Structures are given as C-alpha cells and as structure tokens.
Amino acid sequence: MLRISELRASYGAAPVLQSISLHVDRGETVALLGPNGAGKSTLMAAITGTIAQRAGSILLDGVELAAAKSHAIVARGVALVPEGRLVFAPFSVEDNLRLGAIRLKGALAERYEYVYGLFPRLAERRRQLAGTLSGGEQQMLAIGRALMSAPRLLLLDEPFLGLAPMVVQEIRAALERLRATGLTLLIVEQKLDIALSFASRAYVLIKGRVALEETTAALARRPDIDDLYFALASTA
C-alpha cells in the first residue's frame, strides 16, 4: 500500500531524514521505532504533506504523493493521529469529530456511529468540551477524529504516550478491532514492549536513517534487545 523510496526531508536547512526507504503492505501493522530525534515524527509529517521532501518518492497504491497537498492526501485515504493529541479544546467532542470528516463524502451519521461504537466514552461525552476530557479520552478523540475521514491507512504518532496502563489497554483493544477490519496501521512507538507485542514488523530509525528492518518476532529474539537503540547507534 505504502512505498517510500530514498526519501530526504528537512526543517529549513537542517536535514532530518536521510534517504529513508520502507514499505507497508495492505492490512499490515508496522512500527517505527527509535530514540528521540531519530526522525519518526518527521517521516509522518512527510507522508501527510505537512513538510516538503527534498528528494525521493512516497507512493500510496502506486500514486505519487510528493507534490500533493495535505487535504488531497487525506482524500486519498491517509489519516494522522498526531503526537500530543492536538484536539480543539474549545470545541465539543462531536465538533472535533465533525472536523475530521470535513472532506468526507457520504453519511456523516454512519461515521459517528462507527467511532462511538469503538469508543463508547466519547458517545457519553459528545457535548462535552474537548479540553475538559482526561488525557486518555483526548487520545480516543484524536483517533476518532482521524477515523471520521474513513481512512485506509492510519498513521499514529505515539498513541500510548503518557497514558495510564488501563487506558493503554483500552486504546490498544480498539486498535486491535480496527486491525481486524483490515485497516493498515503505521505506528510511531518508543516502547519496545508495546511495539513487539502489537506490530508484525518494525523499522528502527537512527539519525534519520533506517538502521534495521525486521519482524517483531525476530527483534524480540535479539540478544541486545534491552539496549537496541544504543547498539544500532554505535554502528551508524
């Protein structure tokens, strides 16, 4: 579904991504791993068109996204759940969800029903201001807002960051349900235990490059797994 080839991207003059190449198959769950500053969030931004790439290719079902605007990329079936949730605090839960469906052609009521079925707590709080929700509820709202556009590829940037273990399990169960429907997931994650138990395959980014591509089962068997980032950085 997604094929990235020799992608380079930067913020201003400072290069961040150094010739990244990777792929995500339809229906697959892939994790992007790496320490802070490795380029994981920058890669998500490049895929969604919020930063310009300097070189390389991003293909979605064979269609080049390099010159596409963010709204056109959403229309092609890509949605991002950003790091930090970034919900619109002064707006209600339902208004936040409606903003996620701004380019959707079809029955809006069906998308509400889909999201509320996945996260019943959002249905209970549909009139509540997003800024008054708990951190876990805001994360559910951020995921729900992305799902309102009926994506085929869902990008999640640190979806479990700062959440209590019970909430992590609740959100993970929802993502498992999404995966069972055939939705393709690309997840940025720093915690190896979550990534190894959730994704089927992983890329480890170090200093803006792919340092390792491996199945999560094989990663879990590595003798240096507890110091994986350090081990890869020392050979980069």
Topology (elements, then pairings):
Layout: E1 2-11, E2 14-24, E3 29-33, H1 40-47, E4 53-60, E5 63-64, H2 70-75, E6 78-81, H3 93-100, H4 108-118, H5 120-124, H6 135-147, E7 153-157, H7 165-180, E8 184-188, H8 192-198, E9 201-206, E10 209-215, H9 216-220, H10 228-233
Parallel strand pairs: 3-8, 3-9, 6-7, 7-8
Antiparallel strand pairs: 1-2, 1-4, 4-5, 9-10
Helix pairs in contact: 3-6
Folded structure, characterized:
The chain has a domain at 1-77 and 155-161 and 186-236: P-loop containing nucleotide triphosphate hydrolases (Rossmann fold, 3-Layer(aba) Sandwich). The chain is built from 10 helices and 10 strands. It has helices at 40-47, 70-75, 93-100, 108-118, 120-124, 135-147, 165-180, 192-198, 216-220, 228-233; strands at residues 2-11, 14-24, 29-33, 53-60, 63-64, 78-81, 153-157, 184-188, 201-206, 209-215. The protein is globular and about 50 Å long. The two termini are 29 Å apart.
Brief rundown of the structure:
The chain has 236 residues and is an alpha/beta fold.
Uncertain runs are none
Please report the first level of CATH classification, the CATH class of the domain at 1-77 and 155-161 and 186-236: Alpha Beta
| Class from helix and strand fractions | alpha/beta
Q: What characterizes the major β-sheet?
A: 6 strands, mixed
Number of strands: 10
Sequence of secondary-structure elements: EEEHEEHEHHHHEHEHEEHH
Q: Could you name the CATH topology of the domain at 1-77 and 155-161 and 186-236?
A: Rossmann fold
Helical percentage? 25-40%
Count of helical regions? 10
